[in-house]
Amino acid sequence: MTSLTFYEFFAGGGLARIGLGPQWTCLFANDIDEKKADVYRRNFSGAPELIVEDIHRITTDMLPGRALLAWASFPCQDLSLAGKGGGLRAERSGTFWPFWDLITALDLEGREASIITIENVVGLLTSNKGRDFQELVSVMTAQGYRLGAMVIDAVHFVPQSRPRLFIVAVKNHLRIPDGLITSMPDVVWHPSPVVRAYLHLSSSMRGSWVWWNLPLPDRAPLHLQDVIDPEPIGVSWHSQEETQRILSLMSPVNLAKVRHAQSTGRRSIGTIYKRTRTHDGVKRQRAEVRFDGVSGCLRTPAGGSSRQTILVVEGDVIRSRLLSVREAARLMGLPDSYWLPERYNDGYHVMGDAVVVPVVSWLEAHLLRPLATHIAQSVEDCDVSTTTGHFL
Q1: pLDDT, tens digit (0-9, with 9 covering 90-100), for 16-37
Q2: Which of 65, 247, 309, 331 is the most buried (most CB within 10 A)?
Q3: What is the pTM of this model?
Q4: What is the distance between the alpha carbons of residues 271 and 288, in angstroms, rounded to a whole number?
Q5: What is the dihedral of CA 166, 170, 175, 178, to 10 degrees?
């Protein structure tokens, strides 16, 4: 059986690893956060392959063997709309560069990563007026990679609105199997921000671009109510006073959503984020609710406003509470067997920084595994031909 191997950079709680599945062997994993590393170890039998260290201090001597795939979900804070827009050269999102230094060093050692997958926020496409994305594509194509970008929204797989950018790159000399690329962008996976970013690339960079071909998901995603516990562990229901305070932060439009949910007479579950909005030049906190069976995008708990609130409406009875960590894990596509820390913020932080498991699984099944299997088999055939004196 073909051996599929990978390195996992910025590993967090290992959700990319779970998504890739048991057919992949992790040769090396890295993260700087000791709390995330504890979660990783507990979920992967101690994970001796995990090194907890600043990526600036990682050297190729620490990377064993040769991996078919290098996966990197580098920090998004300087690229996201919620961040300060520092871009790809800022402190956190700038960790792409030491990662890329490792990739180029492996190349020089004859241990190139045949496939690279980069996951980040969609804001990478437009950060610094698109220059960050152009610079990233420039260094990857200069290193001899063909690549393409896709936006995959987790809402196709789980009840969470979470669009993320996935860049998949393959070494130039490796043949891509028929059916994995298409001649034109697909509106589902290549929405207008991807197409615009592509059109702003230089002609040489566009010459190394591929439009990856993914099928549409073949099953209906879960509904929000499928992941919400009637009596959750680790969080408590708010007092009526606190629930009323949250309702008082709603605009007339959002209050109307609550009143409509009451009028149905059914049990309705919604999610709330608190956001700062400006009206008539005055900034004020607002509570914004949705009852469409989908949660908002999970984020790290940098202050109470970024933690999602559950609102349950049954006629005249309205209750509220924080989303539990276990519920957040389900929204990331994790099974309940996944170990989570007891401290709320620690667990929520791991989930808010992660990639959605079934999204990775879909990408693995329909792109990464076919690519890697073809590449690995080609190498094996070449080795056999060389040892027998025949060349393909």
Answers
A1: 999 999 999 999 999 999 999 9
A2: 331
A3: 0.92
A4: 8
A5: 0
